[in-house]
Design brief:
It is built from 14 helices and 21 strands. It is an alpha/beta fold. Helix 1 runs parallel beside helix 6 and helix 9 crosses helix 11.
Length: about 450
């Protein structure tokens, strides 16, 4: 016999999926309020971490009655969850090894294992797909994506995901990875001749510099979708001038999937308020329109592993609400702090840092936090804060794995530290290149 609360979650998720695009502002806020109450009750009753969190703050689930009560819940950081075993952060009636799994690449320098039920996984994917269809993508479009390197075993577990999407007709024809040489990636793009191009803005913009006039003439693209980092004005210009089609940018994360989507009329980002409650804070203070703040989000459909007032370590600028286009949603003017720098190698190649993150996580399951710094063209420093003290061979394996991913005459040095402090703006920089920064200053 199905749990009534489970049926209620499914019904609420399907209601939001099918109706949210026609909701009024009042209907959105009412939905958020109902989901927040249900989530607070569930988290305290069934998730040990939140049971302790509420008790420590002297809170009961019944105290969370309206959206105005949200700020009574203490903020949770990625570090708070990352250091705990799955049985502490997931619902007690679920078996973690049977849940869908995603492991973040650690954009804050801290990898996190995210667990969802199959329904939650596909619901969040459906929200994103629905938004892409509303923006002009067609079910029959052929796509080509430039994404991450293949994930090591144990970092992702979503049974049947590819089978389901292909049965529905929504899938990428081909997906290349950041680790491919530029000419190989371009050859694959030429052969695919896609209708839709997807990937990180910097990677796609980088490819445009190697495309020939013939590539532009043969292109059949209608739509470019970027995500994963800040799409700067320069990146957008390169993409639109090269392909002559609109660029639609998304703000997403592993924890929530789609967070905000660029307005069809351009300029601002519509927060997906039927998927999450998003706060923009300066310390404990909500920022005003046009002000910069840090993102704290509450997932409205994550009950297997709840995220209540979860700090994403992202900086944004709050926009006007409602959007000038007429959509009754809160907006963001800009997404800050997500541009990923490439590493400039001695042989002239530029390597995306994600190429190094994959082997790092695979070789060092014992790490708590990391930072990869290129301080010279031939030297990369990997800083690691370990959860447990690794042996010398484990440290050597990390250096060997990262060096193999580079395939270049570059020394990889691994150092173990007690802590990696944030930047003055409060953000952790998991990877950056002093070489790239110097080259950019000289070119400017």
């Amino acid at each position: 016999m199905l749990d009534c609360s489970l049926i209620g979650r499914w019904a609420a998720g399907l209601e939001a999926l099918s109706q949210s695009h026609v909701w009024t502002r009042g209907e959105i806020l009412a939905f958020q309020t109902r989901r927040l109450r249900a989530l607070a009750r569930h988290a305290v009753r069934r998730v040990p971490y939140y049971r302790r969190l509420f008790a420590g703050a002297g809170l009961r689930p019944e105290d969370i009655r309206t959206l105005d009560d949200l700020d009574r819940i203490p903020i949770t950081s990625r570090f708070d969850l990352q250091r705990l075993p799955a049985r502490e952060t997931t619902a007690e009636d679920l078996k973690p090894d049977r849940l869908a799994l995603h492991t973040t690449s650690g954009t804050s320098g801290e990898p996190l294992r995210i667990l969802r039920t199959a329904f939650e996984e596909y619901l969040l994917r459906a929200f994103r797909l629905k938004q892409q269809l509303l923006m002009g993508m067609r079910p029959t479009d052929r796509g080509w994506g430039l994404g991450g390197t293949p994930r090591p075993s144990g970092m992702e577990r979503v049974p049947g995901s590819r089978f389901l999407t292909r049965r529905l007709g929504f899938h990428l024809t081909h997906a290349a990875n950041w680790g491919l040489p530029t000419e190989v990636a371009l050859d694959q793009l030429r052969q695919a001749q896609p209708d839709v191009l997807v990937g990180s803005a910097s990677s796609l913009a980088w490819l445009t510099g190697f495309m020939t006039p013939g590539d532009r003439v043969r292109s059949r693209l209608r739509y470019i979708s970027t995500a994963g980092e800040t799409c700067t004005a320069e990146m957008r210009r390169q993409l639109t001038e090269t392909f002559g089609v609109p660029v639609h940018d998304e703000y997403a994360s592993h924890e929530f999937n789609l967070i905000a989507s660029e307005c069809p009329q351009g300029g601002r980002y519509h927060i997906q308020e039927w998927n999450l409650i998003l706060e923009v804070l300066d310390g404990d203070r909500p920022v005003g329109t046009g002000e910069e703040g840090e993102v704290v989000a509450t997932g409205l459909h994550s009950f297997a592993m709840p995220f209540l007032r979860y700090r994403l370590n992202d900086l944004v600028i709050l926009g006007r609400s409602p959007c000038p286009c007429g959509a009754p949603v809160t907006t963001l003017d800009k997404i800050l702090g997500r541009t990923i720098e490439r590493f400039l190698l001695p042989d002239g190649r530029q390597v995306h840092p994600y190429v190094l993150v994959r082997p790092l996580l695979a070789e060092a399951p014992w790490l708590r936090r990391y930072q990869i710094v290129q301080d010279r063209p031939d030297h990369i420093l990997v800083k690691i804060v370990p959860m447990t003290e690794p042996g010398p061979e484990a440290v050597t394996s990390v250096a060997r794995g990262v060096a193999a991913a580079l395939d270049a005459p570059v020394e990889v040095e691994v150092v173990l530290l007690d802590d990696i402090p944030p930047e003055p703006n409060g953000k952790y920089r998991p990877y950056y290149s002093l070489v790239s920064a110097l080259a950019q200053r000289r070119s400017a």
